[in-house]
Records
---
Amino acid sequence: MKLERLNSFILADTEKCVGCRTCEIACALAHMAVPPEVAGELNARLTPRLFVVSAGEVTAPVLCRHCEDAPCANVCKMSAISRADGRVLVNTERCVGCHLCMMACPFGAIEFAPLNGDTAPIYPTAAKSSGEENKPMYRANKCDLCNDRADGPACITNCPEKALVLVNAAAATRRRRNEAALELLAEQNAVWV
Amino acid sequence: MMNNDGFIQIDQELCTGCRHCSDNCAVQAISGEPKKPQSVSSERCVVCGQCVQICSAFDSIFDERWGRRTERLLEREMPQSVTEPLFAAHDRNFLPEIKAALIERNLRTVVHCDASVIGPLAEEFGLRTGSIKPGQVVAALRKLGFHRVYSNTFSVGIAILEQAREVAERVQKGGNLPVINSSCPAAVRFIEQSFPELIHFLSGCRSPRQIAGSLTKAYLAQQFKTDPAYLFNVSLASCTAHKLEATRSELRVGAHRDIDAVLTGRELAWLLKHYGIDPFLLEESEFDQELPPIDELRKVFCHIGDVAQAVLETTGELLGVDQAAVECSAAEGGGACFSKVRIGDREYVAASVSGLQNAVPFLEAVRKGESSFRYLELMACPLGCVSGGGQPKVLLPERRKPIYAMRANSTALAFAKPGARLSTNAAIRHLYEDFFGKPCGDKSNHVLQTRYVERSIEVQPVQANSS
C-alpha cells in the first residue's frame, strides 16, 4: 500500500450494506494464525475487529477511523497504541486492559476481546480464588487494516454486497478537486462561448 | 423463540434480516422485511438446508451477555461442548433421541452412512477433506455405541436397479416418461408442492436412505430374529431434507418410523467431540456385511450426472446389452448435463440437474410434454450431496465453491473403477432371491416402493414486504 499523507480507513456504504456480518467473520478469520474453513473447526469465539450495528433502518459495520491525533493513543497509559505505516495499532503485549481507549474512542471502534491463540492468558493475582479464574483475559481489539494480508483488508474482499471501501481522505479530496477544476472549465466554456 | 414447527429455524434474536437466505431459497419459504428478523414457512420449506449453509449472522461475543450461549445451545438441543459460532438459521436435530438410544440397553442401534458424509467429516476436525478414512469413521461410530454400521451404497445400488427397472418397463410397456429420480428428498418435496401434476413421473422407488431404513426394519430384523421395535435406526446423512423425509407418515411400520433418527455430518462431529472421540486416531474397522457395501457407488451423488449414468448403464444391462457405453456431456452452465446410451437401434438420453431453480425449466418441459430425455436426475443442492445442508458449514462465501469441488474430487478419486454391474451383483441378487422372492413382487414393492402426495402451494413471486 502506498503511504499517503493522511491515514487510510475503511468505510461502509449504508445503502449497500445488508447487515449479513460476513465482514465480521472474514475479519476474525483473517486475524487467526491458521484460519479455519468450516464452522466446526472453530474452538474459540470469533473476535472480529469491526462491529456490524443495526439501528433502525441502517445496518453498517463500525470500525476504526485511524485518527491522525488518535484519542485512544493519547489516553493509553501503557503506550500500547501507536501510529505506524499509516495505521493506529494496538500492541496487545503492552495492553493491560484498562478500558481507557475503549471509552475515549468517539466511534466505539475499540472492543475488548479475549486473548487467544498461542499466547496463553496469565491470570492476574486478583482473579485467583475469586471465582473468576475462568474469565478470559481481555485486551483492546481494533482494526489494523489487515497488516500482513496480501489482498488488502479481508472485510473488503469478502463483502458479498461490495459495501466496504478503503478510503483515503487526502487522495479522495485531490480527486474531487480535479473534478471540480474540470467542471470549472466546462462552466467557463458555457458562459463565454 | 421457535417461530414454527419446521426443521429449519431462524433465531429471531440473531437474524439481522440480510435476506441472503431468502434470495437463495428456491421455494420462497423465507419471508420478512429487509433488516428485520426473517421467518420460515414450514409449509413451503423443503428443508434443503441451503439457508443453514449460507447464514452468516452469528452470536457475536460483543453483542450479548456471556451466558446466553448456554441457553441457546439448550434450546437447539446441541451439546454444551460445541464451540463453533451459532448462526441464526439452523436445523433441528435428533440428538437427544440418538443419545438416549445409544445408552438404552434393550435397543439395538443401527447406523447407515452416506458416502458423501465421510470425506468432509475431516474438515470438522481441522483436516483436509478426505483425510479421515471410511474405516475410521466406522470405528468412531462403533465407539459411540452403534451395534451395526452399514454403508449406504448397498441401498444406493438397489435404488438404481429399481429405477432402471422402471425406466426399462416404462419404455417397453409405455408409461410416464421421463422417470424422475426420487433419491433427493428436497427435490421430491419440491415436485409435490410446485409441480403436483408431475408426481406420477417420479420413480416409485424410495430414496436410498429410506431403502436402508425399510430394509433394516423388514430384512435385518428378520436376520437378527428381533422385533423391529427394538431396532433403533439412524441415518447418517449429508442432508437436512432427509429429516423431513424420515418423518413422512407412509415411511413407517405401525408406530415405528423406518428411520428413527437422522444424524448429519456436522451433528456427528459434535457428538464425537462431545465424547472425546478423535476418528483420525482410530484403527480402521469394516462396515458390517449384512448389507455389503458396493464400493463403486460411493461417488454417486457427489457429481451431477453420476446417478443418471448408473441408471442408464443398468437399464442397458436389463434390456440385454452387455456393457452399455454411456456417454456423458460435461456439466454446462446452469448446472445441467446430459448422458446418452445407445441400446440396440434406440438412443436413450438422461438429463441431470442440480439446484432447484435450475430444475424448473426441465420440469416445465416435462409438464408440457416436450422433454426429449427418458430419465431426469434432480439434486436440490448446488453441487449435489457434497454441498448438502448437513455438511460442514463453510464460513466464507468465496470459499464455498472450491471446497465443494475438493470434496467431490476427494470422494471420486478414491474410486476410479466405473460400472458396478448391478443387475448381476451377487449381494443384491441374494437379497431379491432369498428375501423378496422375485423382483417387483408384492414383498419387494412393499419394502422398496413409496407413494407421493400432491401438496400444491401457490408460489407467489418474491415480495419484499410479505411478513
---
Amino acid sequence: MKNRLKVLRAERDWTQAHLAAELQVSRQTVNAIEKGKFDPSLPLAFKAARLFNLTIEDIFEGGNQ
Amino acid sequence: MNEQTPISNDWAQNQHQNTRHLAYWTLGWLVTTAAAAFGPRKIWDFATVPTMLAVAVNLGVGFGMIVAIRRHLRGLDELHRKIFLDAAALSMGVGLVVGLAYELFEDIKLISYQPEISHIVMLMSVTFMVGMISGHRKYQ
C-alpha cells in the first residue's frame, strides 16, 4: 500500500526512530510501512493520522492490489 | 519545520524488559529440565521425593515461561508479532509433518532406532530461527 509517511515525516524533520517512538512501534516497522512492504493495522493507521492531524486517506492510498 | 520533542520511550523499555524476562524464564526452564533429567541418575539415585519435586518445579517454571512468551508476544509491535507468528506457524507445521513422518519411519522399518522427541524439538527450533531471520530480512 502506497503512503505519504516518508514525506510527512520529512516535512517535520523527524527521523524514523522519532516517528517510531511516537507511534510506539519499532524503527523497522516504520521503515517497512514507508517502503510499502508492510500494511499497518487500522489502529496504527488511525494513530498515524491523529499524529499528523490528517485523515487516514490523506496518508494511505488504497490500491487495487 | 517542527522541532523534535523528547518523547516517552516506555514502549521500547517494556519490550526490552519482556525480552529479558523471557530470557530468564527460558534459562530457568532449561536448568530445571536438566535437573529433572539428570538429577535422578547422577545426584539423588532415583529417590522418589526429589524426583517428583524436580519434575514439579520443571513444570511450574515451564508454565511461567509460557506466560512470559505470551507477554513478550503481546508487547511486540504488529510487524514483529507477524514475523514471530509466521515463524511459529512454520515451526509448528514442520514439526507436525516431519515429526509424524519420523515416527512412521520406525514403524515401517526405514530407520532402525527409536525416534527421539529431542530431534523434533531441535528441528522446530532451527525452523523457528530460520523463519525469524527470513521474516526480518523480508521487512528490512
